[in-house]
Amino acid sequence: MQPSPEQSPHHAYPDHWEADVVLRDGGTARIRPITTDDAERLVSFYEQVSDESKYYRFFAPYPRLSAKDVHRFTHHDYVDRVGLAVTVGGEFIATVRYDRIDATGRPASAPADEAEVAFLVQDAHQGRGVASTLLEHIAAVARERGIRRFAAEVLPANTKMIKVFRDAGYTQQRSFEDGSVHLTLDLEPTAESLAVQRAREQRAEAKSVQRLLAPGSVAVIGVGRTPGGVGRTVLRNLLGAGFTGRVHAVNSAFPADQDTIDGVPAHRSLGEIGRPVDLAVVAVPADRVPEAVADCGERGVQGLVVLSAGYAEWGAEGRERQRELVRQARSYGMRIIGPNAFGIINNSEAVRLNASLAPDRPASGRIGLFTQSGAIGIALLSGLYRRGAGLSTFISAGNRADISGNDFLQYWYEDPDTDVALLYLESLGNPRKFTRLARRTAAVKPVVVVKGARHSGSTPPGHAVPVSRIPDSTVSALMRQAGVIRVDTVTEMVDAGLLLADQPLPAGGRVAILGNSESLGLLTYDVCLAEGLRPRPPIDLTTSATPQDFRDALSAALADGACDAVIVTAIPWVGENGEAESGDGEVLATALHAAAAAGPAKPVAVVHVEIGGLAEALAAATSTVAQPRPATQPFAAAREAPGAVAPGAPTASPSGRAGTPAATAPSAAAAGAAPNAAQPAAADGTPQAPQAPESHGVDQDAPRIGRIPAYPAAERAVRALAEAVRYAQWRRQAATPGKVPDFLDETIDTQGAAARIDALLGEDPDPRGRPLGHDEARELLACYGIAVRPTLPAPGPEEAVAAAARLGYPVALKTTAPHLRHRADLGGVRLDLDSEAALRRAYGDLTDLLGKPAELRPVVQAMAPRGVDTVVRAAIDPAAGAVLSFGLAGAPSELLGDTAHRLVPATDRDAAELIRSIRAAPVLFGWRGAAPVDTAALEELLLRVSRLVDDHPEVVSIALEPVVVAPQGLSVLGASVRLSPPPARNDLGPRRLSNY
């Protein structure tokens, strides 16, 4: 909202203070500066505030605002006097203002750095976290304007406001003066204030998702009068899933005499419903969506699932239509899934929501699935269904204009029904926030990600994302640092998800392999080695092995303390007539389940080749009894073998997931029910209890033994297990996070570095930034204890000799021309020159071979102790943030891409992992009899570079090359630094949603 011309002319309207926020109850609101045009809104807002709240604000009865008050509260200079308002539906629900004051409490201007602050929240919106959110935003505004402290006077009875200040996490002082509580808040963010802010963000965003996934009532807008169509399909899917709340069908074209459709109430508008609607599924053409959104907003709908297409995927006009959709929905406090979405599913028995185009509600389970693509969502649902996997929740967000994968990570973090989070992402709207949320979530449950559109220029339409300059391999490394299991395909995601959801995490990488095929066992062994696991020699049970043999072998492997996981390989038994018998999968599954349930908690995976029914039986583990088979076959004979466990018999299990009965029944489709059969509804829109599906010989209420994931190829099983091993190792390490050593503080001059940076950038810095000269870079790095060996220019042989005399022999003569820099292989570097004669001879050879001195730009540098040449870099990426990188100098990093990356700030553990995670790391630790180098000094250097970049965001890139690491100490021979005005950060500051 732009101000009128009478607004203070010397300070432009600060539109960057505008923000959409999520409140404690999951609803949204808008925060913006108050302008002169808000007089009527302010008066109307004040009239709706109770007398008690007015008294708390003004310390006296204050029934109405005078004209002078209205003028004062709507006229601001946006520097010394600032007012912010929280709006819903365009109307004020809360305000806050500050006035800069001096030491005596009188109005003042800069350089005074204290301000008096006061809040007022409508009574109907108190308890929604409005004041807490406002405090974050007004504090950020104050810091921007040079204010360092807030002062507030609060009546002792105003306990809610006192709690807002007390719980904010800022450093504060309190005193009791003249009958009121005097509070002083230091506005410098603290670790506690940041933790409070992020905890509130998590609760609010999780609640906003919960309101969408667990509505008490759903209205489908755009239900067709004839079968077919998107709206009618969603309605039937809602009913077919047995949604526990009320369902309403809405279409303005319904005849006046039509009261129901598909057994639910039919309405021509939301206003006809006469009862609250929590969720609206919008399935009308794009040009009619604004009317539907307005109707929803005016009726208090909490959230929208917009299935309609015709938005950003259709070009510039569609992108603007999408922005307006988000702005309109948020103005009413609603959040959106979509547009162009496939829908959402919640399998909780208390909800049973299928507000999607998926005809079958997948079986209930412990996996949460988010996808930005409807087509990928369909494929994933189908693949999970075929393999007997169950979901807790499913979301296909389409253009994800509002709610994104970050929001669902917030929800899944505390969701008791979700053990594993699977995400198919085509873009990362806020990569730094994603990394932060993923790290926190991965500390309690696995997060598996497939990243589509990985190459630059292929961002899906409608996804507003920052452009990253780092390669995809770096993104993958940073995800793994955050504990994310990143895989390349959706098949690998399902493979990993199944194992993580149904099996315990492995304690290590020692793998036992057993089965009835020596060849398949050897293939599995080879893949284990390739994936970095430590397999034991395969145990061949021979092709005559019975299920009891499998059970005994698996029990022994699980009981072995030298084994962390087991892979079972199985091929069909070959009968006496030479024909393969593949129909005994259920019996083998029963034996494997029994062994896994009775043994220690270790992951078990099965690799099978065409054994009929095995994968299904392992996944379902029901009490289905197989039909009798001739006793001449080993599998059939096992049914009569002593100690055999009847299929589906409950077993005691001390091991957590394995062996515990599942809480859900098979899906309706699996049990033979018609997938789209709509359940009848009561007159108020509440569906009746669905009929129990016909069992077809399977006891639906029988307890189930824990699922064992089955794979049709050894490679898929081993990769899934390897991901679980790496994740388990990360999780163990994350339990005791690294830290930045205290000794660094004693050798770092933060203020000195800041002063140098300010001086180098100047008062009007070039937004493109500037590279530092050699001496400038040396001086800045020295502030952080990073010593760069001096380099002296040598434009001629006499200057070279003088430089060597100053530095001391032996010296190195190097060219610094861009095309020859760090290219010793082209002859641009001459080392170990121990005399003036040797230096003059080298200078002549260099210029004769490569060109004139003016072209070569020769320099002289004192020789460093011999060691391994490495390179250390740090850079600010617009998408990922500050990234610290390490590799060996030359071909390993430049040609082979053997470089490791970590996000800044790096801890001591990050630094140690960084130098050990490159493929060429053995060179640093005494490869082929060489002396190990000083990795401790290298780790310290990495930490110092990380601190410099983290402390001073103006340092947008650093390159130390080469860094020669010797057995004792290291030498930084070259350094380049680039400064620029600090880039915008969207992961710091007050909470806000993406701007549209």
Major beta-sheet overview:
8 strands, mixed
**Which structural class should the secondary elements be placed in?**
alpha/beta
Proportion of residues in extended strands: 15-25%
- With strands numbered from the N-terminus, the spatial order across the biggest sheet is 1-2-3-4-5-6-8-7
Percent of residues in helices: 25-40%
Short description:
With 996 residues, the chain is α/β, with parallel strands linked by helices. It has an 8-stranded mixed sheet with strand order 1-2-3-4-5-6-8-7, sandwiched between helices. A 7-stranded mixed sheet has the order 11-12-10-9-13-14-15, with helices on both faces.
List the SSEs and their pairings.
Elements: E1 19-22, E2 28-33, H1 39-47, H2 51-58, H3 67-74, E3 81-88, E4 91-101, E5 114-121, H4 130-144, E6 149-154, H5 159-166, E7 171-177, E8 180-186, H6 191-213, E9 217-221, H7 230-240, E10 246-250, E11 260-261, E12 264-267, E13 279-282, H8 289-298, E14 303-306, H9 316-331, E15 335-337, E16 343-346, E17 353-356, E18 364-371, H10 374-386, E19 391-396, H11 405-414, E20 420-425, H12 431-442, E21 447-451, H13 472-481, E22 485-487, H14 490-502, E23 510-515, H15 518-530, E24 534-535, E25 539-540, H16 547-559, E26 565-570, E27 573-574, E28 580-581, H17 585-598, E29 604-608, H18 614-620, H19 634-640, E30 710-711, H20 714-734, H21 743-746, H22 750-761, E31 770-771, H23 774-782, E32 791-793, H24 797-807, E33 811-815, E34 829-833, H25 836-850, H26 853-856, E35 858-862, E36 868-877, E37 881-888, H27 891-894, E38 899-903, H28 908-916, H29 935-951, E39 955-965, E40 970-972, E41 975-979
Parallel strand pairs: 5-6, 9-10, 9-13, 10-12, 13-14, 14-15, 18-19, 18-20, 20-21, 21-22, 23-24, 23-25, 23-26, 26-29, 29-30
Antiparallel strand pairs: 1-2, 2-3, 3-4, 4-5, 6-8, 7-8, 11-12, 16-17, 16-19, 27-28, 31-41, 32-35, 33-34, 33-35, 36-37, 36-39, 37-38, 39-40, 39-41
Helix pairs in contact: 6-11, 8-9, 11-12, 14-20, 15-20, 16-17, 17-18, 24-25, 28-29
